[in-house]
Amino acid sequence: MANPKRTWLDGPQIPGEHDDPFAPGKWPGEKLGLPEAGPGSLASVARRAGGVTIDWIMCWILAMTFVRFTDILGSTPTVTLIFWIILGILGGWLFAGTPGHKLLGMGVARTDVGGARVGFWRAVARTLLTSFILPAAMVDSDGRGLHDRATGTAVIRG
């Protein structure tokens, strides 16, 4: 039975229009079962970018210091990336977040199992995908980067 309130200006009614799994929720993270605001809610893109910036600056300062004594790993940009990858893997695996995440009140959590640790291999995959920049810059309808979606994780507020 057709809806009498619809007119030809509304266009065709698309099957599954209201239960589309790719449609955005009422707030970022709703479909993941995360609260709208406060602890446990999805962190904003700006906050996550701030965390990455803090981590990168820390690694850059350490790399400049390291390169002053030896160039065994290469120049400052290469050593910065190496340190940043190590920081991302160890931080995600052992502490559920990097120093940048923690300073801005965030952490990394699994979306498939509540309360479970991210784990070593997820931390490795997440960090390596983040290092390619593009997956982190592209977000889904929940606001998660593609690297988080691929590894079944989310950056949440602490």
Automatic annotation (TrEMBL):
InterPro entries: Pra-immunoreactive, UCP021697. Residues 1-30 are annotated as: Disordered. The keyword Transmembrane applies. Keywords: Membrane, Transmembrane, Transmembrane helix. The chain crosses the membrane at residues 81-100. This is RDD family protein. The lineage of its organism: Bacteria, Bacillati, Actinomycetota, Actinomycetes, Mycobacteriales.
